[in-house]
């Protein structure tokens, strides 16, 4: 394990804990952004440059901006924080604990693969052109279906933003 | 484990690019005043030093010595963090821009570029999309309704214009087939044949990209986040001293980077006309060595790239002092209902032209 990996893992875990434990929701969002950066660093270590860049653009750059946007409007602070009943807290603890148990049980026997660099290792595997070839040959149909989904969402957004006939905003 | 690039040389280049960004941003404040004065038929700054050239220094002294003010009820940590973040993201984006071709000393050849990665375009795009956090966090932490409105405007404006910007880039990437900015630059000039810069092949895409660059850097006519007539000072209403200075500085660095990206993507980057002819003439008629002729071409190309960048910076300022500010609903309508459909049409046209072999 390289020191870079250990550092990134440390940052990722610490900021992920920060997301949960921060009192202020804006701090939570900022910790989550830091977590995404640490994850992008892991992708870079795995030689997946494209995935790292897209993770930053889509998650840290676009989705988290929307999160922050909404949270700023909600005006959440200590005074307005709802007090949850004890039953809900116990239920959350049980659900979270059992999820943790399942994850530990599932990951306990995993054999790590790809840790050794043998002769068949392809250093170009995470590069943009290789990824494009896989997406457009092996997974063409799912890829196109997903892109149609995005197109529908985009057209919907433009339609919502368009002024209807006779409507005046000013 | 990724290999770090040749650190010795690369760190010099990174340091020079960093220093140049700061220097250019400093003198952008001066240029802005001089150009404003020229366009409005005034004298402009002429007191500090010859032709007022020391004006940025005087401004810096003023900024540093002003009172540091924290508004009541502000989130102090985030209030400081906001301008820092704006500055960091502004400085990060110039890392992948190729400021020149390679120079060679003996057997060693170096790129005049911070880091050469094969996802360079995505890096610029990602860092630009992060730039809005500085404005948002600063505006929110100020505990001021005008600041918050400015921050929210900045966020929605940046997200809206990122879409059109990304789609106008896709047309360029369809032609180049690579995300590396260096490769895109090199493809715009081929020795021994007529080869045009991307602006000739992508006029519509360039116009879309340019409009989006104005919106992403929060420049007039799209400077709604700091619209004085509606929002006092927008997101930096509560800021004073050097924290305000960092915000203003970050804006100028963003303009510099946006100009550099436009020069690289659409105006040939470090290529200039007849560069190969000049090199061959130097080698054949003047008896130069090929390597030193190539080095001269590289230096001239870097000078040429900076000339293009300064041209774009002038264009940014020219527009600022010429056009009035858009209304907010006009800004959103331009982005969503005009620029995005236009960018889609541009992708279709580019795809058709590539399919029928008109452009490559």
UniProtKB/TrEMBL annotation, chain A:
Membrane topology designation: Multi-pass membrane protein
Subcellular location: Cell membrane
The reaction(s) this protein catalyses: a quinone + NADH + 5 H(+)(in) = a quinol + NAD(+) + 4 H(+)(out)
GO CC annotations, alphabetized: plasma membrane
EC number(s) recorded for this UniProt protein: 7.1.1.-
A Pfam match: Oxidored_q3
Record keywords, A-Z: Cell membrane, Membrane, NAD, Quinone, Transmembrane, Transmembrane helix
GO molecular function: NADH dehydrogenase (ubiquinone) activity; quinone binding
TM segment ranges: 46-74, 86-107, 139-160
Function: NDH-1 shuttles electrons from NADH, via FMN and iron-sulfur (Fe-S) centers, to quinones in the respiratory chain. Couples the redox reaction to proton translocation (for every two electrons transferred, four hydrogen ions are translocated across the cytoplasmic membrane), and thus conserves the redox energy in a proton gradient.
Protein family membership: Belongs to the complex I subunit 6 family.
Protein name per Swiss-Prot or TrEMBL: NADH-quinone oxidoreductase subunit J
Lineage: Bacteria, Pseudomonadati, Bacteroidota, Cytophagia, Cytophagales
TrEMBL record, chain B:
Chief location bin: membrane
Annotated membrane topology: Multi-pass membrane protein
Known catalytic reactions: a quinone + NADH + 5 H(+)(in) = a quinol + NAD(+) + 4 H(+)(out)
GO cellular component terms attached to this protein's record: plasma membrane
UniProt entry tagged with the keyword Methyltransferase: no
Biological process (GO), any one: aerobic respiration
Keyword terms of this UniProt record: Cell membrane, Membrane, NAD, Quinone, Translocase, Transmembrane, Transmembrane helix, Ubiquinone
InterPro entries: NADH_UbQ_OxRdtase_su1/FPO, NADH_UbQ_OxRdtase_su1_CS
Molecular function terms, GO-annotated: NADH dehydrogenase activity; oxidoreductase activity, acting on NAD(P)H, quinone or similar compound as acceptor; quinone binding
Bilayer-crossing regions: 6-30, 78-100, 120-142, 163-182, 252-276, 296-319, 331-359
UniProt-annotated location(s): Cell membrane; Membrane
Enzyme nomenclature, EC number: 7.1.1.-
Subunit-level organization: NDH-1 is composed of 14 different subunits. Subunits NuoA, H, J, K, L, M, N constitute the membrane sector of the complex.
Stated family: Belongs to the complex I subunit 1 family.
Stated role: NDH-1 shuttles electrons from NADH, via FMN and iron-sulfur (Fe-S) centers, to quinones in the respiratory chain. The immediate electron acceptor for the enzyme in this species is believed to be ubiquinone. Couples the redox reaction to proton translocation (for every two electrons transferred, four hydrogen ions are translocated across the cytoplasmic membrane), and thus conserves the redox energy in a proton gradient. This subunit may bind ubiquinone.
Name of the protein in its database record: NADH-quinone oxidoreductase subunit H
Organism this protein belongs to: Hymenobacter luteus
């Amino acid at each position: 394990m390289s020191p870079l990996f250990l550092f990134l893992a440390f940052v990722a875990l610490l900021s992920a804990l920060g997301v949960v434990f921060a009192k202020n929701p804006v701090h939570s969002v900022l910790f989550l952004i830091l977590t995404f950066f640490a994850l992008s660093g892991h992708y870079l270590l795995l030689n997946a440059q494209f995935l790292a860049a897209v993770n930053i653009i889509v998650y840290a750059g676009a989705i988290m901006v929307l999160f922050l946007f909404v949270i700023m409007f909600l005006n959440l602070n200590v005074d307005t924080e709802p007090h949850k009943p004890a039953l809900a807290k116990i239920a959350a603890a049980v659900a979270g604990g059992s999820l943790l148990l399942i994850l530990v049980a599932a990951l306990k026997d995993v054999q790590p693969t790809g840790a050794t660099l043998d002769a068949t290792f392809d250093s170009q595997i995470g590069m943009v052109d290789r990824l494009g070839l896989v997406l457009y040959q092996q997974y063409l149909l799912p890829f196109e279906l997903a892109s149609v989904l995005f197109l529908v969402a985009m057209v919907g957004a433009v339609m919502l933003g368009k002024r209807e006939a006779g409507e005046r905003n000013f | 484990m990724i290999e770090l690039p040749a650190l010795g040389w690369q760190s010099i280049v990174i340091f020079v690019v960093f220093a140049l960004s700061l220097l250019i941003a400093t003198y952008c404040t001066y240029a802005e005043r001089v150009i404003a004065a020229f366009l409005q038929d005034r004298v402009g700054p002429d007191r500090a030093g010859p032709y007022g050239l020391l004006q940025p220094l005087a401004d810096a002294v003023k900024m540093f010595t002003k009172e540091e003010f924290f508004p009541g009820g502000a989130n102090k940590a985030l209030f400081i963090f906001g301008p820092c973040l704006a500055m960091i993201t502004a400085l990060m984006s110039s890392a992948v821009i190729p400021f020149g071709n390679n120079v060679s000393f003996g057997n060693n050849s170096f790129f005049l570029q911070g880091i050469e990665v094969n996802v360079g375009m995505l890096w610029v795009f990602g860092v630009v999309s992060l730039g809005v956090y500085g404005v948002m966090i600063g505006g929110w932490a100020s505990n001021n309704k005008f600041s918050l409105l400015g921050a929210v405007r900045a966020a929605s404006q940046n997200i809206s214009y990122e879409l059109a910007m990304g789609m106008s880039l896709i047309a360029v990437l369809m032609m180049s087939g690579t995300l590396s900015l260096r490769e895109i630059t090199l493809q715009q000039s081929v020795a021994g044949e007529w080869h045009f810069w991307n602006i000739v092949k992508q006029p519509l895409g360039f116009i879309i990209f340019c409009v989006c660059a104005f919106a992403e850097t929060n420049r007039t006519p799209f400077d709604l986040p700091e619209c004085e007539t509606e929002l006092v000072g927008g997101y930096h209403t509560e800021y004073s001293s050097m924290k305000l200075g960092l915000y203003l500085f970050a804006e100028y660095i963003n303009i510099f980077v946006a100009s550099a990206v436009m020069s690289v993507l659409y105006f040939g980057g470090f290529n200039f006309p007849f560069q190969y002819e000049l090199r061959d003439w130097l080698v054949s008629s003047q008896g130069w060595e090929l390597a030193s002729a190539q080095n001269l071409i590289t230096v001239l190309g870097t000078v040429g790239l900076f000339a293009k960048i300064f041209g774009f910076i002038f264009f940014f300022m020219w527009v600022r002092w010429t056009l009035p500010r858009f209304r907010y609903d006009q800004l959103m309508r331009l982005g969503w209902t005009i620029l995005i459909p236009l960018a889609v049409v541009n992708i279709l046209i580019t795809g058709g032209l590539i399919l029928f072999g008109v452009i490559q």
